[in-house]
Amino acid sequence: MVRDITERKQAEEALNQAKAKYRSIFENAVEGIFQTSTDGQYLTANPMLATIYGYDSPEELIATLTDIQHQLYLISPPLAATAATNFLRNYWLQSSPVLVSQDRLAAQVEAI
């Protein structure tokens, strides 16, 4: 029995090309791109995100930042939600999160 697997091979090649294209976009982006778990750990990060935060590689960033809320954010959403003063409540509602890089430099993040 002989089966023609040409279509299957073409589909596999198209899939591999699409994966390579999107991997290249992820790896070479000029903006930080990441994926996190619900418990606050990075699952993936691109090289630019590592650079933004002052790490040598995405692997170092992922290995070092294991609790994003407490290690990265200076003002976290839970803190802002339970703050005792209206100032903190208003600040959080009217501004973007403030992040801190590995070298402890703060940067405000714009929401899109």
**Beta-sheet strand percentage?**
5-15%
* CATH fold assignment: Beta-Lactamase
What structural class results from the helix and strand content? mainly alpha
Strand order of the largest sheet: 1-2
Domain count: 1
Tell me the Rg in angstroms: 20 Å
Number of helices: 6
Principal-axis shape equals elongated
| CATH level-two architecture | 2-Layer Sandwich
Structural write-up:
The chain is mostly helical and 112 residues long. It has a single domain, classed as Beta-Lactamase. The protein is 50% helix and 12% strand. The protein has helices at 6-28, 47-53, 58-64, 68-71, 77-82, 86-94; strands at residues 34-36, 42-45, 98-100, 106-108. The strands form two sheets. Strands 1-2 form a two-stranded antiparallel ribbon. It has a two-stranded antiparallel ribbon with strand order 3-4. Helix 2 crosses helix 3 (58-64). The longest helix has 23 residues, at 6-28. The radius of gyration is 20 Å and the shape is elongated. The termini are far apart. The relative contact order is 0.10.
